[in-house]
Amino acid sequence: MGRAFVYVIVGGGVAAGYAALEFTRKGVSDGELCIISEEPVAPYERPALSKGFLLPEDPTRLPSFHTCVGSNDEILTPKWYKEHGIELLLGTRVRSVDVRRNTLVSSTGETISYNFLIIATGARALKLEEFGVEGSDAENVCYLRDLSDANKLATVIQSNSNGNAVVIGGGYIGMECAASLVINKINVTMVLPGAHCMARLLTPKIATLYEDYYSSKGVKFVKGTVMTSFEFDSDKKVTAVNLKDGTQLPADLVVVGIGILPNTSLFEGQLIIEKGGIKVNSKMQSSDSSVYAIGDVATFPVKLYGEMRRLEHVDSARKSARHAVSAIMEPEKTGDFDYLPCFYSRFFAFSWQFYGDHVGEVVHFGEYEEGKVFGAYWVKEGHLVGTFLEGGSIEEYETISKATEMKPVVTDMEELAREGLRFAQTVVSQQVVPEVEVVQSSEIMRQTSTVAMMEKPLHAWHAVSGVVVAASVTAFAFWYGNKKRR
Ligand code: FAD
Ligand code: NAD
Predict the structure, then answer these.
(1) Which residues does the UniProt record annotate as the domain FAD/NAD(P)-binding (predicted)?
(2) Do 312 and 403 share a domain, yes or no?
(3) For the segment 301-331, what is each residue's pLDDT rounded down to a tens digit?
């Protein structure tokens, strides 16, 4: 029998780092907490890998982007874990877990027991092989999920200046990497199966504006098709990408971003899985009472929408981690996880944030031009449920998050489009609920400047990281259309 800990976190990514900080804040004792991570480095802010890490000059490197710098907290270096009596088992994969016996076995063969287990295994990148295409292991084919992928990509970029890149997939990785490749003077062709980029979230109108900008930077889009095979040279390097429509694209390097698969395999048959993730309740507790799940791997109830969701974004990883630790350490003081989904991205000089849910009818607003402020509202069953904003200020992002969380009534879609951002501002300025807890703008300013360090150049990033609004929505019925007509 190996060691025993009170708390074990399996996985050492974003959520694990934020959980560790929260454990120390809640008074964990020396030797009680162990984090086991397959990666050889302490938890870091993964978003930096597709942004500051790929810059041609002065790229961001560790230790500057260890967690929890993304929310302007301390930088948790390996020394920090040591000083706080936290066992950090790096380069160690958890091979199996026996949930019934509260034990796990690591890749070194050690059996470790726990009182509480937190699953923070995140996800892995989907491989082309899973779609019947061979050749992912070629030295110039790059995925981007972890630091070793990012190191490979940065090396391949450096040795292919002025070369041709083919980017497979038009999601977050595709768009952010394509921008980084252009900044590195590489010619980019993007291959996407759908009609426009980032179709999971963006409307065709928003996507078209971004695609037009990419085109103005020389990026070519090949849409409505998928790749079927690679051409290789005698060194097994990819030289071209063959598409289903018969096109052949010359390639010095290939970047693949075709989605992810949550790392649940250790728990299949032991815990309830829903929507591809470990099903947890509003305390982030799984179907076994001593096991919790956080981050990309957790499917949790989003109270605001009365639905189970699994999210793949850093804000939810950070906040679900804090909530789980609080629920474990201070169960009597911890309520339900009440989360407003928040996504953001940055490419070239663009920077956007989205809050809420992208369902229902969409209304666009603002000036749809590069360098201008524009956005969209999603309205479902007469209530505002989602807001997208490009180019906003810190205060404007704070405003849209608050307004979206309040789910105000919308009666007139044309009026909503005309009012644009003013709608959210009016909703927030007229809120009458007393129990409102808002992030101090000074805190947001500090967060933004810290983030600039890891994701240069400076842009408003994820303005809201802590508590946003705890408002009783039912107490506030903002009958916007009627009010305007009065
Ligand atoms: P991860 O951060 O993936 O961590 C999981 C960890 O578990 C990894 O270290 C993994 O090695 C380890 N692990 C897995 N299985 C085992 C095992 N059996 N034993 C031991 N260790 C194991 N989100 C945004 O909102 N905005 C962004 O701009 C943004 N940019 C991104 C850029 C990139 C390149 C990537 C890849 C993601 C980005 N994301 C972004 C998404 C965000 O990073 C994830 O939502 C977040 O990292 C999820 O945190 P996590 O802790 O759940 O998982
Ligand atoms: P994604 O789900 O955002 O996009 C996948 C893309 O691949 C889609 O455009 C899809 O149509 C396309 N696709 C699927 N199968 C394909 C195939 N066989 N051939 C070609 N294209 C195919 O996933 P991603 O871009 O790979 O990102 C991976 C993860 O990283 C996601 O969880 C994402 O949320 C996260 N991430 C987030 C951010 C951010 O929030 N700013 C940035 C980077 C990464």
Answers:
(1) 7-321
(2) no
(3) 998 889 999 999 999 999 999 999 999 999 9
Mutate to test the pocket of ligand 1, among 22, 46, 345, 456 (most ligand atoms within 8 A of CB): 46
Domain residue limits at 168: 128-258
What is the model's pLDDT at position 479? 28
Domain CATH for 143: 3.50.50.60
**In whole angstroms, what is the distance from residue 286 CA to residue 418 CA?**
45
Q: How far is the CA of 257 from the centre of ligand 2 (A)?
A: 5
385-395 per-position pLDDT tens digit: 999 999 999 99
Q: Give me 370's structure tokens.
A: 């590069």
Residue 206 predicted with pLDDT over 80 = yes
Q: Are residues 88 and 8 in the same domain?
A: yes
Is the Cβ–Cβ distance between 112 and 36 less than 8 Å?
Answer: yes
Mean pLDDT of 279-298: 98
Contact 75, 205 (CB under 8 A): no
State the average pLDDT over residues 54-67.
97
CA dist list (Å): 46 to 225, 246, 476: 29, 36, 38
381 found inside a domain? yes
The total domain count for the chain is 3
Q: For residues 45 and 115, state if they share a domain.
A: yes
Taking residues 211-240, report their average pLDDT: 97
Residue 485 has pLDDT above 60, yes or no: no
Atom of ligand 1 nearest to the CA of 321: 51
pTM over 0.90? The answer is yes
The answer on 145 and 119 residing in a single domain is no
> 34 forms bridges with which residues in the sheet?
8, 87
The residue among 346, 89, 129, 372 whose CA lies nearest residue 256 is 129
Q: What is the pLDDT, as a whole number, of residue 294?
A: 99
Nearest ligand, CA 315 = 1
